[in-house]
Predict the structure.
Amino acid sequence: MRLAIGICAALLLGGAIGEAPAQTAPNTSRTPGRAAPPPSPGTAPPLGTYVGTANGACRIWVPGIVTGAVEWTGGCRNGLAEGPGTATWPSAQGAVATTGNFRNGALNGAGSRANADGGRYEGAFTMTMPHGPGVYVAANGQRYEGPFVWGAPNGIGRVTFPNGDRFEGGVVNGMGDGQGIYTWANGDRYEGNQTAGYPDGQGRFVSGNQVFEGTWTRGCYYGAGGTRIAVVRPMAECR
Protein backbone atom coordinates (compact mmCIF):
# COMPACT_ATOMS: atom_id res chain seq x y z
CA MET A 1 0.00 0.00 0.00
CA ARG A 2 2.84 2.41 0.63
CA LEU A 3 2.78 4.97 -2.15
CA ALA A 4 6.09 6.26 -3.43
CA ILE A 5 6.47 8.44 -6.50
CA GLY A 6 9.94 9.54 -7.54
CA ILE A 7 10.27 13.32 -7.56
CA CYS A 8 12.38 13.99 -10.66
CA ALA A 9 11.42 11.12 -12.92
CA ALA A 10 7.86 11.00 -11.54
CA LEU A 11 8.07 7.23 -11.11
CA LEU A 12 5.33 5.36 -9.28
CA LEU A 13 6.32 2.50 -7.01
CA GLY A 14 3.63 0.50 -5.27
CA GLY A 15 3.53 -2.04 -2.52
CA ALA A 16 1.23 -4.76 -1.28
CA ILE A 17 -0.81 -5.33 1.83
CA GLY A 18 1.06 -6.33 4.97
CA GLU A 19 0.51 -9.44 7.05
CA ALA A 20 -2.95 -10.59 8.06
CA PRO A 21 -4.38 -9.50 11.43
CA ALA A 22 -2.85 -11.29 14.40
CA GLN A 23 -4.25 -11.72 17.90
CA THR A 24 -1.29 -10.99 20.18
CA ALA A 25 -0.62 -8.91 23.25
CA PRO A 26 -0.23 -5.23 22.40
CA ASN A 27 3.07 -3.50 23.00
CA THR A 28 2.32 -1.05 25.80
CA SER A 29 5.72 0.63 25.46
CA ARG A 30 4.66 2.24 22.20
CA THR A 31 1.75 4.63 22.28
CA PRO A 32 0.04 5.43 18.96
CA GLY A 33 0.04 9.15 18.28
CA ARG A 34 -1.79 11.64 16.12
CA ALA A 35 -0.48 12.02 12.59
CA ALA A 36 1.66 15.04 11.93
CA PRO A 37 0.36 17.46 9.28
CA PRO A 38 1.84 16.82 5.83
CA PRO A 39 4.70 19.11 4.81
CA SER A 40 3.98 21.82 2.29
CA PRO A 41 5.48 21.12 -1.13
CA GLY A 42 8.18 23.52 -2.27
CA THR A 43 7.00 26.37 -4.44
CA ALA A 44 10.38 27.54 -5.75
CA PRO A 45 11.36 26.30 -9.23
CA PRO A 46 14.34 23.95 -9.44
CA LEU A 47 17.76 25.05 -10.58
CA GLY A 48 18.41 24.90 -14.28
CA THR A 49 20.40 26.41 -17.09
CA TYR A 50 20.34 27.16 -20.81
CA VAL A 51 22.10 24.35 -22.68
CA GLY A 52 23.17 24.66 -26.29
CA THR A 53 22.68 22.24 -29.14
CA ALA A 54 25.69 20.40 -30.57
CA ASN A 55 26.16 22.98 -33.35
CA GLY A 56 25.68 25.88 -30.93
CA ALA A 57 22.87 27.38 -33.01
CA CYS A 58 20.17 27.15 -30.35
CA ARG A 59 19.83 27.07 -26.57
CA ILE A 60 17.16 25.40 -24.42
CA TRP A 61 16.29 25.83 -20.75
CA VAL A 62 16.90 22.47 -19.04
CA PRO A 63 16.13 21.84 -15.34
CA GLY A 64 18.94 20.40 -13.25
CA ILE A 65 22.52 19.86 -14.36
CA VAL A 66 23.20 18.61 -17.89
CA THR A 67 26.74 17.77 -18.96
CA GLY A 68 26.12 17.12 -22.66
CA ALA A 69 24.57 18.95 -25.60
CA VAL A 70 20.83 19.04 -26.28
CA GLU A 71 19.25 17.75 -29.46
CA TRP A 72 16.45 19.98 -30.78
CA THR A 73 14.12 19.30 -33.71
CA GLY A 74 12.36 22.67 -33.89
CA GLY A 75 13.15 26.23 -34.88
CA CYS A 76 15.14 28.98 -33.18
CA ARG A 77 14.69 32.69 -32.64
CA ASN A 78 17.39 34.94 -31.23
CA GLY A 79 19.41 31.86 -30.34
CA LEU A 80 16.63 30.21 -28.30
CA ALA A 81 14.33 27.28 -29.10
CA GLU A 82 11.05 28.56 -30.51
CA GLY A 83 7.90 26.77 -31.66
CA PRO A 84 6.91 23.10 -31.72
CA GLY A 85 9.64 20.50 -31.40
CA THR A 86 11.34 17.88 -29.24
CA ALA A 87 14.30 18.56 -26.96
CA THR A 88 16.38 15.55 -25.89
CA TRP A 89 19.14 15.75 -23.29
CA PRO A 90 21.26 13.23 -21.35
CA SER A 91 20.59 12.34 -17.71
CA ALA A 92 21.93 9.86 -15.17
CA GLN A 93 19.09 7.46 -16.11
CA GLY A 94 19.43 7.95 -19.88
CA ALA A 95 18.03 10.30 -22.49
CA VAL A 96 15.00 12.47 -21.64
CA ALA A 97 12.85 13.66 -24.55
CA THR A 98 10.43 16.57 -24.00
CA THR A 99 7.96 17.57 -26.71
CA GLY A 100 5.81 20.68 -26.92
CA ASN A 101 5.56 24.28 -28.08
CA PHE A 102 8.65 26.11 -26.79
CA ARG A 103 8.90 29.85 -26.25
CA ASN A 104 12.12 31.72 -25.46
CA GLY A 105 13.93 28.40 -25.04
CA ALA A 106 11.55 26.84 -22.48
CA LEU A 107 8.40 24.73 -22.56
CA ASN A 108 5.49 26.44 -20.82
CA GLY A 109 2.08 24.86 -21.41
CA ALA A 110 0.92 21.46 -22.63
CA GLY A 111 3.53 18.88 -23.57
CA SER A 112 4.88 15.38 -23.03
CA ARG A 113 8.04 13.77 -21.71
CA ALA A 114 9.46 10.30 -22.41
CA ASN A 115 12.04 8.84 -20.01
CA ALA A 116 14.70 6.29 -20.91
CA ASP A 117 13.10 3.72 -18.57
CA GLY A 118 9.88 3.70 -20.61
CA GLY A 119 7.84 6.01 -18.39
CA ARG A 120 5.84 8.79 -20.02
CA TYR A 121 4.29 12.04 -18.74
CA GLU A 122 1.62 14.12 -20.48
CA GLY A 123 0.29 17.37 -19.08
CA ALA A 124 1.25 20.89 -18.09
CA PHE A 125 4.83 22.23 -18.06
CA THR A 126 6.47 25.31 -16.58
CA MET A 127 10.13 26.07 -17.29
CA THR A 128 10.39 22.66 -19.04
CA MET A 129 9.29 20.86 -15.83
CA PRO A 130 6.04 18.93 -15.23
CA HIS A 131 4.05 21.50 -13.26
CA GLY A 132 0.26 21.50 -13.04
CA PRO A 133 -2.28 18.80 -13.93
CA GLY A 134 -0.83 15.75 -15.67
CA VAL A 135 -0.71 11.99 -16.10
CA TYR A 136 2.34 9.77 -15.64
CA VAL A 137 2.37 6.13 -16.77
CA ALA A 138 5.36 4.01 -15.75
CA ALA A 139 6.81 1.27 -17.95
CA ASN A 140 5.04 -1.38 -15.85
CA GLY A 141 1.64 0.26 -16.45
CA GLN A 142 1.35 1.98 -13.08
CA ARG A 143 -0.50 5.27 -13.53
CA TYR A 144 -0.72 8.54 -11.56
CA GLU A 145 -3.22 11.22 -12.49
CA GLY A 146 -3.27 14.53 -10.65
CA PRO A 147 -1.31 17.73 -10.03
CA PHE A 148 2.49 18.01 -10.21
CA VAL A 149 4.67 20.64 -8.52
CA TRP A 150 8.09 21.01 -10.17
CA GLY A 151 8.23 17.40 -11.31
CA ALA A 152 6.80 15.80 -8.15
CA PRO A 153 3.21 14.60 -7.66
CA ASN A 154 1.59 16.94 -5.13
CA GLY A 155 -2.10 17.42 -4.35
CA ILE A 156 -5.19 15.22 -4.64
CA GLY A 157 -4.30 12.42 -7.05
CA ARG A 158 -5.37 9.00 -8.25
CA VAL A 159 -3.07 5.97 -8.65
CA THR A 160 -3.84 2.64 -10.30
CA PHE A 161 -1.41 -0.26 -9.91
CA PRO A 162 -0.73 -3.15 -12.32
CA ASN A 163 -1.96 -5.68 -9.73
CA GLY A 164 -5.41 -4.03 -9.56
CA ASP A 165 -4.88 -1.97 -6.39
CA ARG A 166 -5.88 1.69 -6.47
CA PHE A 167 -5.39 4.80 -4.34
CA GLU A 168 -7.08 8.18 -4.28
CA GLY A 169 -6.22 11.00 -1.92
CA GLY A 170 -3.54 13.39 -0.77
CA VAL A 171 -0.01 13.14 -2.18
CA VAL A 172 2.95 15.19 -0.93
CA ASN A 173 6.24 15.02 -2.83
CA GLY A 174 5.33 11.66 -4.31
CA MET A 175 4.10 9.98 -1.10
CA GLY A 176 0.58 9.28 0.14
CA ASP A 177 0.06 11.95 2.80
CA GLY A 178 -3.12 13.27 4.40
CA GLN A 179 -6.59 11.83 3.85
CA GLY A 180 -6.92 9.02 1.32
CA ILE A 181 -8.51 5.72 0.37
CA TYR A 182 -6.47 2.66 -0.64
CA THR A 183 -8.37 -0.30 -2.09
CA TRP A 184 -6.66 -3.63 -2.69
CA ALA A 185 -7.58 -5.86 -5.63
CA ASN A 186 -9.02 -8.42 -3.17
CA GLY A 187 -11.49 -5.84 -1.82
CA ASP A 188 -9.64 -4.89 1.39
CA ARG A 189 -9.82 -1.17 2.04
CA TYR A 190 -8.12 1.46 4.20
CA GLU A 191 -9.69 4.90 4.57
CA GLY A 192 -8.13 7.59 6.71
CA ASN A 193 -4.98 9.55 7.29
CA GLN A 194 -1.53 8.66 5.97
CA THR A 195 1.93 10.01 6.69
CA ALA A 196 4.76 9.31 4.22
CA GLY A 197 2.78 6.46 2.66
CA TYR A 198 1.79 4.68 5.90
CA PRO A 199 -1.61 4.56 7.65
CA ASP A 200 -0.99 7.05 10.45
CA GLY A 201 -3.49 8.82 12.68
CA GLN A 202 -7.21 8.12 12.51
CA GLY A 203 -8.21 5.44 10.00
CA ARG A 204 -10.44 2.47 9.24
CA PHE A 205 -9.26 -0.81 7.69
CA VAL A 206 -11.80 -3.36 6.43
CA SER A 207 -10.78 -6.91 5.46
CA GLY A 208 -13.71 -9.23 4.76
CA ASN A 209 -16.01 -9.05 7.80
CA GLN A 210 -13.25 -7.65 10.05
CA VAL A 211 -13.11 -3.93 10.81
CA PHE A 212 -10.20 -2.18 12.55
CA GLU A 213 -10.93 1.46 13.31
CA GLY A 214 -8.99 3.85 15.49
CA THR A 215 -5.52 5.34 15.77
CA TRP A 216 -2.68 4.00 13.61
CA THR A 217 1.07 4.55 13.95
CA ARG A 218 3.05 4.20 10.70
CA GLY A 219 1.11 1.16 9.53
CA CYS A 220 0.58 -0.42 12.97
CA TYR A 221 -2.75 -0.75 14.79
CA TYR A 222 -3.21 -1.73 18.43
CA GLY A 223 -6.81 -2.50 19.33
CA ALA A 224 -8.80 -3.58 22.34
CA GLY A 225 -8.36 -7.11 23.66
CA GLY A 226 -4.80 -7.44 22.38
CA THR A 227 -5.64 -7.11 18.70
CA ARG A 228 -2.60 -6.15 16.67
CA ILE A 229 -2.47 -5.64 12.92
CA ALA A 230 0.21 -4.52 10.47
CA VAL A 231 -0.67 -2.92 7.15
CA VAL A 232 2.14 -2.27 4.66
CA ARG A 233 4.96 -3.22 7.03
CA PRO A 234 6.03 -6.57 8.58
CA MET A 235 4.15 -7.58 11.72
CA ALA A 236 7.46 -7.89 13.59
CA GLU A 237 7.89 -4.11 13.31
CA CYS A 238 4.62 -3.47 15.17
CA ARG A 239 5.80 -4.20 18.69
